[in-house]
Inverse folding.
């Protein structure tokens, strides 16, 4: 007898009936860039994505909820930047104000606050800098790890006070999850989850984001604290395990597309929810190819996001969230 798998692929109804992987807007997290101006400013390297005013960020949250997307993640772009990124943990910082406004207007939406300093420092790094003895060139300067922990913890507490539902530390500092957990608990926010950027690579795919946030490093590079793309599985497991032990409530892999094997590994090894970050460069590649007529945008986006879920993602941060939600609803 011939085995005939094609029988179950014969019609749209049969294909839908036997699908193992389901993609749904509830799995999406919509990223929002918030600046301190009153306008909406398109980002040239990310077609369809803009920097939003606080009022416009509120409307983004409303639209997300209407599309069935339950969460937004906020990235702040302050007018003033300095060496210590003080606007990241200012009580009246742009993310703190945006969070209050969104929670007041759209209380049902879950607000995730990106907890980092790179968007707020004048040098574009994720904490205060220190010189590395005996090094030169791009490796001569790096982030001073332990002083950064205090600032990241202050940032998380200020975001929690503003009403954030989740804080998401992305600086890749050793011990950051433990420092933030202790600070949140000490300030009475024992209920607040930490979405850790546990496995975050020093990736070329971040280029459009750095353009959007003005966070390209002015000196040195991030290779000394973000992970080596060729580092392998042992390093990924070590980073994820450390964050889980320190109190992370979810684990993130960033970028997603080139690291689906790592995402799948974390899904097998940990019982925490796993988040995929479908980053700016991945988004921009599809947009550019679609604009040139090389690829079908809808099919490519939905296939890409389905692949992330198949690899083990419970949630996906994606700039495609609005479009993908509309396409899924239309199906």
């Amino acid at each position: 007898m011939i085995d005939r798998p094609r029988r179950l692929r014969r019609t749209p109804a049969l294909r839908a009936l036997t699908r193992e992987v389901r993609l749904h807007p509830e799995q999406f997290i919509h990223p929002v860039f918030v600046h301190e101006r009153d306008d909406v400013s398109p980002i040239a390297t990310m077609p369809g994505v803009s920097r939003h005013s606080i009022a416009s960020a509120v409307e983004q949250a409303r639209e997300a909820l209407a599309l069935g997307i339950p969460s937004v993640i906020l990235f702040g772009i302050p007018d003033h930047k300095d060496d210590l990124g003080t606007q990241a943990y200012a009580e009246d910082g742009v993310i703190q104000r945006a969070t209050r406004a969104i929670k007041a207007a759209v209380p049902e939406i879950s607000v995730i606050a990106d907890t980092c300093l790179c968007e707020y420092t004048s040098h574009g790094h994720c904490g205060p800098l220190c010189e590395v003895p005996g090094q030169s060139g791009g490796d001569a300067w790096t982030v001073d790890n332990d002083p950064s922990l205090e600032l990241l913890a202050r940032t998380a507490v200020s975001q929690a006070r503003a009403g954030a539902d989740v804080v998401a530390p992305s600086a890749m500092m050793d011990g950051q999850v433990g420092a933030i957990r202790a600070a949140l608990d000490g300030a009475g926010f024992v209920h607040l989850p930490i979405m850790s950027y546990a496995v975050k690579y020093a990736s070329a795919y971040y280029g459009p984001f750095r353009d959007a946030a003005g966070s390209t490093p002015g000196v040195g590079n991030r290779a000394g604290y973000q992970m080596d793309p060729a580092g392998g599985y042992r390093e990924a497991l070590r980073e994820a395990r450390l964050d889980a032990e320190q109190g992370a409530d979810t684990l993130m892999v960033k970028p997603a597309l080139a690291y689906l094997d790592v995402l799948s590994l974390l899904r097998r090894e940990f019982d925490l929810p796993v988040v995929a970050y479908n980053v700016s460069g991945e988004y921009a590649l599809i947009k550019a190819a679609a604009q040139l007529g090389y690829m079908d945008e809808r099919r490519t986006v939905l296939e890409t996001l389905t692949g992330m879920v198949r690899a083990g993602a419970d949630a996906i941060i994606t700039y495609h969230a609005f479009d993908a939600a509309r396409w899924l609803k239309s199906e």
In short: The chain is about 40% helix and 15% strand. The mean pLDDT is 95. The first strand starts at residue 28 and ends at 35. The chain has one domain: 23-330.
